[in-house]
Design brief:
about 350 residues; mainly alpha; globular; membrane
């Protein structure tokens, strides 16, 4: 990591206004530990809100394409909403679905929307990583979160505006996927700037629970809003991620140099005593530079990690996008009773194990 001047010239980073206000009130700068805690909380909430907005689609699918009148599992994330959504089967708006998704090819159209979203998300992730090496990560993350909130709400606005064009929903999801792609590269880079190698494994293990927390909260919010209309299942998470994005803009310090704090001396000494081996031949250990696509694949461990993550994501996103839809369209009463039993009797344990073992 270069000097403060180099960091500012490279990324244009400045001290966030919220940090300046806090220091003005306190009469002094934040400590390194306080700044680390602030970074952890903000990045955790940031990526949890990203996943919360992704989860809404899987909950609403059964309303957009109700192939059966059995809507008993629309509220599966929490028993708190069993009574509120009990009348879903008698709600004609939920029974009739929403064109064009309530036709014979409705499931196919929903799958195409998911494919378009994830395709643009994957492509955007590649460019977001390069962009994050060259611009202020706080600004990039803020734009990504506000844009995600706007286009998540725009999907739900199709209900209020009585839009039935498939290409409207397809386009909205593709743009949302593009904004979503800014999230992961940005939050990982910021956390990496603040936590050294000595504790990064422990911190990342705990911090990575944001994925499951986001999925759980997204399911709860989307299910709770269904009784007001499926549009609110998109609008509320969209507004929430935009608000968190505003907090990121005001308070997130992307690295210690931006806020003028120094790492604890004992941590510095610990890492200096270690052996630094360059991962890429021909690269000095001086000022950090952006790494190209081919160069990144040459870094030891990148290829096997990428393959492992590919198969993990393959399974995770299958459940993320299609499990609630599949269960709500299953005619097996035993399956319904089983899931209701799990949600009512073991909800807390289920959520806890999801955070601990699925992160």
């Amino acid at each position: 990591m270069g000097s403060s001047a180099e960091s500012r010239s490279r990324m244009g980073s400045i001290k966030p206004m919220g940090i300046q206000l806090i220091e003005c009130v306190r009469g002094g700068p934040l400590s390194f530990r306080s700044s680390q805690a602030l970074v952890l909380v903000l990045t955790f909430l940031s990526y949890a809100s990203y996943h919360a907005t992704r989860k809404t689609t899987s909950i609403v699918k059964s309303v957009l394409d109700p192939k059966t009148t059995n809507l008993g599992l629309l509220h599966w994330p929490s028993h708190m909403y069993l009574q509120e959504l009990k009348g879903a089967a008698n709600n004609t708006a939920l029974q009739s679905g929403w064109a064009p998704f309530n036709g014979e090819d409705g499931t196919k159209l929903l799958g195409e929307i998911d494919l378009a979203f994830l395709g643009v998300y994957a492509i955007g992730m590649f460019f977001a990583g390069h962009l994050g090496d060259r611009v202020d990560l706080r600004i990039l993350l803020t734009i990504g979160m506000v844009g995600t909130g706007l286009f998540t709400a725009a999907f739900g606005a199709g209900y209020w505006l009585n839009i039935h064009s498939f290409y409207y929903f397809l386009g909205v999801q593709m743009i949302a996927g593009l904004f979503q792609s800014s999230g992961w590269p940005s939050v990982v880079a910021v956390v990496g700037n603040w936590f050294g190698k000595s504790k990064r494994g422990l911190i990342m293990g705990i911090w990575n629970a944001h994925t499951s927390v986001g999925n759980i909260s997204g399911s709860l919010i989307a299910a709770a809003m269904l009784k007001f209309g499926w549009s609110w299942s998109f609008a509320v998470p969209g507004a929430m991620i935009a608000l968190v994005g505003l907090a990121v803009f005001l308070f997130l310090p992307v690295d210690p140099e931006v806020v003028g704090v120094e790492e604890d001396r004992h941590v510095k000494d610990y890492e200096k005593n270690g052996t630094d081996v360059p991962l890429l031949e021909g690269h000095s250990s001086g000022r950090d530079e952006a790494v190209g696509f081919i160069q990144a694949w040459r870094i030891p461990g990148v290829a096997p990690f990428a393959l492992c993550l590919f198969f993990c994501k393959l399974v995770a996103y299958t459940f993320l996008y299609w499990l609630p839809f599949y269960l709500s369209h299953t005619g097996s009463s035993s399956c319904i009773l089983c899931w209701r039993h799990v949600e009512i009797k073991n909800e807390s344990f289920f959520d806890l194990t999801t955070v601990l073992f699925c992160s």
